[in-house]
Design goal:
Layout lengths: L2 E5 L4 H9 L3 E3 L1 H10 L13 H6 L9 H16 L2 E6 L3 H4 L4 H13 L4 E5 L4 H17 L8
Parallel strand pairs: 1-2, 1-3, 3-4
Helix pairs in contact: 4-6
């Protein structure tokens, strides 16, 4: 099972497709769930630990807005962990808007810098494009090795 970084990182559609083909989606939703359910995090609504801002500095300098560093403290490790990536370009906001243009650009840049298999597809606008979109993703996912994850 390959770990697939998905962009937009909160796309339920991509997450579901990746799971259906036997791989693990690396999505922001799972990391957020971990943050808000972890016993050690006791400062809602912030839900951060003292280490989170430091981790964000690995991906974005101190000069960028704090929100970018905060998002990158979650997204950056997902990119680092990935065995492959799917990037959807020009997606509609309901498909998985992440809300911060600078974070989005930095996220795509980091994913493109990794030496991993990567599929970049345009968000479909018609039924025919939608079919081709799913087909391209399916073929990409089928091409990835399905290693045993030991579970």
């Amino acid at each position: 099972m390959a770990k697939i970084f998905i962009y937009p990182t909160n796309s339920l559609i991509l997450s579901d497709l990746v799971e259906r083909f036997g791989h693990k989606p690396l999505a922001m939703m799972e990391k957020i769930r971990e943050k808000i359910t972890t016993v050690g995090v006791d400062s809602p609504p912030l839900n951060i630990t003292p280490e989170d801002p430091k981790l964000g500095l690995k991906y974005a300098s101190v000069e960028v807005p704090a929100g970018v560093r905060g998002r990158m403290s979650i997204v950056g490790p997902l990119v680092d962990e990935a065995d492959a990536a799917i990037i959807v370009l020009d997606s509609a906001s309901a498909f998985g808007c992440m809300g911060c243009a600078r974070t989005n650009e930095l996220t795509k840049f980091l994913a493109r810098q990794r030496d991993i298999p990567r599929l970049e597809v345009k968000y479909p606008r018609t039924d025919e494009e939608g079919k081709d979109f799913v087909y391209q993703i399916a073929e990409f996912l089928k091409s990835l090795p399905k290693e045993e994850d030991g579970e």
